[in-house]
Amino acid sequence: MDDYNSGRMGMSEGTALAFIVTFPSIFLSFPSSGVASAGSGAWLSEILAGFISGVLTSMMIYVLARYPGDLLSVTERLLGRMLAYVVGLFYFVVLFSFAILWTREFAENTMLTALSYADFPFVDSCYILGAGFILFAGIENVCRATYILLPFIITAIVLVLTGVVPLARPYLLLPWQGNGLISFIQPTLSLIGLSGGLSILTILAPAFQSVKTMKGAVLFGYGASAVIRTLSVATFTMVFGANVAMEKTLPFYEMARLIYINRYLQRFEALFILLWVIVGILAIAVSLYGALFIMAKLFKLPAIKPLLPAMTLIIAQIAMIPPDSNSVSVIELMLYPYVFAPGVIIISSALLIAAIVKGGKKKCSHV
Amino acid sequence: MFSRVVLIILLLVLSISVIGCNGAHETDEISWVISIGLDKGNNGDLIVSYQIAVPLVLAAGEAAGGGKDKKSSIIITVSAPTLAETRNLLNTSESRAVNLSHVTAIVIGEDLARAGVQDAIGALTRFREFRGSMFLFVCRGTAKDVLTQNSPQLEVLASRWVENIVQSSDETSFGLPTNLHEFYTRLKGDTGSPYVMAIAVNPLTGQNKPAKNLVAGAKLPGYLAGDIPREGGNPVEVLGTGVFKEDKLVGYLSNEETRAIAILSNNYPLGFISIDDPLLPKHAVNVFFRTGRKSKIHVDLGGETPVIRISVFLEGELSSIPTGIMYESQEYKILLETELSNVIHEQIINMLVHAQSLGVDVLDFGYFMRPDFSTTQELISYGWDRRFRQATFNVEVNTKIRRTGLMNKTSPIRREE
C-alpha cells in the first residue's frame, strides 16, 4: 500500500485538490441545467448546495479528527467491514463516473468549439490519455501543478465575469424564488452529488499533514470553488436571463464570446478554451486517481500505476458509449441528484452518528 | 532509461497532435464574410446577400495589383430555403471555403422582418461561427440594396464602416447599437420587446421627408432612415430604431424617439440639441447636453393599471446663443433650462405613446417590476404585455445648464441706429 500512498500533502496541494475536483462543472452545461430547473433563482441553489456540501465534508473531517486513518479504514472501524466495502464502492463509482462523464463532455465541447473536423475518438483519447499520462507523476505533483495554475484559472474566470458586466442586468436574478422553492431541490441535490468528489480528501486523508490541513483545504479550495461557481451562475443569469440561459450548452464559453470591449479587444474565447482543456484534464486525472486509489485499497493491491493504462482505455471506451452529448447530460441529471447526493448525505450522516455513538476518543491532530 | 524513451516519444506525439492544426485552413484559403443581408424570397426561400472581403486589395493595394477601381469587398446573393443551404450554394462559386466567424453585421430586409425572423435567426444563436456581438440592422427596403449601395468613402473595408458607424452613434444617439445577444435575450425574455438599428438607402435628392411633426420648442423634426434631406456621401444611412413585437417588425421609431430611449436607458453620453430661443423663438439656441445622473424608473403595480414613474435629470453646456440675450445669467438661464426640459419631456412622452400604440415595451419597463414578484410564474401570470398598453406615465424632466461654453456673456452685434 505504501507504494501509492501519496506522502505528505500540504495545504496548497489540498486546496488545489478540493478546487479542481469540484470546479469543472462551470465549464460544462451544469449552470444551464440549474437555470432550467430553478429559473432566476439558480444562484441561490448554488449557495445552498455550497453550504450543505461544506457541512457534509466538515462532518467527515470531524469523524477523521477523532479516528485516525482514511475514510475506508475509519468506516470499517465504525460501521464494519461490509459497510466499508459498500462505502468504498460507492465513492469508486462517484469518482470513476466523474472521470468518464468529464472525459466525454470535455471532448464533446472541444469538438463543438475548436476542433470540429477532428475525429471524436481522437479527442476523447487525448483527454483521458493526457490525464493518465500526468498521473504517472503522482497525485502530489498533479496537485502542485494545479496549485500553480490556480491563480491563472481564477484570474481568467474573474476576467470573463468582469468582461460581461456591461451586459449584466441585476434584476434578472429576480424573482428570487425562480420557478418556486420546490424547483431548487433538483439542482441543489445535483450540486451536492457533484461535490461528492470532495470525498477524495478524506480518502487520501493519511497523505495530509494534519486534520487542520484538510480543514484548510476544504475551506479555501472548496470555498473558492463554491464562491466562483455561484458568481458565475449569477453573472450568467444576469447576462442572458433565465429563458436564454437555460438554452446554452456551454455557459462559460458563451460568456467569453460576448466580451466586446472594442474592435481591437474582442474574440477572447479561444484563450479560454485552453483554460478549460487544462482544468478538464486535471479534474479527470484527480478523479481517476481517487477511483484507482479506492480500488487498490478495497482489493489490497500493492500499486496503482500498472492499472493506469488499462483504466484509461476502459474510460475512453465507456465515455464513447452514450449516443449523443445530450444523453450524457441526462445521465448526469439522473446520477448526481438521485444516486450520488443521497449517498453522500447518508454516508456522512451515518459516520457522524456512529462516531458520536461510539465516541469518547480524543481528537487527534494527524490523520 | 526505457521510461525516458517512452516519455520522449509520448511528448513528441503529443506536441505534434496538439498544435491546433487539426482541420485548419490557411487564411488565403478562406472567404471571409463580413456582412450578411437577409431578404424574403419567393415560396418561403431566403435571399441571402453575402459581403465577402477581398484581402488582396486590402493587404497590398496597388503594388499587388489592387487598383483604385478595385473594391475591397464583393457581394454575392444566393436564394435557398435556409441560411445553411445558401452557404453551401455560395461555396460552389467561391474557390475559397466560406467562413462566417468575422461577420460584423446582419441586415434584415423589411419584408422578412415584418413576416417574422424566427426561421432566419435559428442558426445565428446556435452555430459557433456566429457571435452574440454581431450588430443587427433592419432596413427600410431590401437588405440586398443596402449592401450593394453602401459605398463608404472614408473606409476601405465595409466591416470597419459598420464598427465605426455603430461606435460613433453615441455622438447623437439617433441610432441605438443593438447586437444579436441583446435582440435575442429581449426576444426570449419575460418582458420587454426587441429592437434593432434601422438602416436604409437615401435617394440623395435633398428632399425633406420628416416622419414626425415638430415638437413644440424643438428645431429638428423626427426622421426615419432614408428620409434625411441630404445630397452627396454614402447613400446608406443608419437612423432610428426598428421595433419588434414577438419576432415581427411592427414599426419604426424616429431619430428623436430613439434619442429619448437612449436617455431613459442611460445610453446617452453627450450630444447637441437645437431648441427655440425662449424669448425670440425664430432663433435657435444650441445646447450640448448629457444625462446628469442615471434616469430613475419605477413601476408602480398598486393600482388597477400600472403607473410608470420616470425621472430624468439633464446637464447642459451652451454651445450657441446667436441672439445676444444673456442666457448665461441666472434669471435668463432658467428660461432655457425650462425650454430644454419641456422639449425632451415631450419627445419622451411622444416616444412612449408611440411605443404603447405599437404594443412594444421597448424600454423593458417590465424589468423594473421583477422585485415585486416572488416567482417567475407570478410574473408571467401578471400579463405585462397587456398591462403595458394600459399603463400611465408620469415623466419628470429637469435640466441644469452647468457651463456656458468658451464665452460667459454675449455682446450684441452693433447695428446702425
List the topology elements:
The complex is a heterodimer of chains A (367) and B (417).
Chain A: H1 11-22, H2 30-38, H3 42-66, H4 71-79, H5 81-113, H6 120-135, H7 139-163, H8 185-194, H9 199-203, H10 211-245, H11 251-258, H12 269-298, H13 307-319, H14 325-357
Helix pairs in contact in A: 1-7, 1-10, 1-12, 2-8, 2-10, 3-8, 3-10, 3-14, 4-5, 5-6, 5-12, 5-13, 5-14, 6-12, 6-13, 7-10, 7-12, 8-14
Chain B: H1 2-17, E1 30-40, E2 46-53, H2 55-60, E3 73-80, H3 83-93, E4 97-99, E5 105-109, H4 110-115, H5 118-126, E6 135-140, H6 143-149, H7 158-167, H8 180-188, E7 195-201, E8 236-245, E9 248-253, H9 255-264, E10 271-276, E11 284-291, E12 296-300, E13 307-320, H10 330-358, H11 376-381, H12 384-390, E14 392-403
Parallel strand pairs in B: 1-4, 1-5, 5-6, 6-7, 13-14
Antiparallel strand pairs in B: 1-2, 2-3, 7-8, 8-9, 10-11, 11-13, 12-13
Uncertain spans of chain A, ≥5 residues at pLDDT below 50? none
Question: How far from one another are the termini of chain B?
Answer: 110 Å
Number of domains of chain B: 2
Q: How many individual β-strands of chain A?
A: 0
> Would you tell me the overall average pLDDT of chain A?
91
The total count of strands of chain B amounts to 14
Estimate percent helicity of chain B.
25-40%
Overall geometry of chain B: globular
Structural class of the helix and strand makeup of chain A? mainly alpha
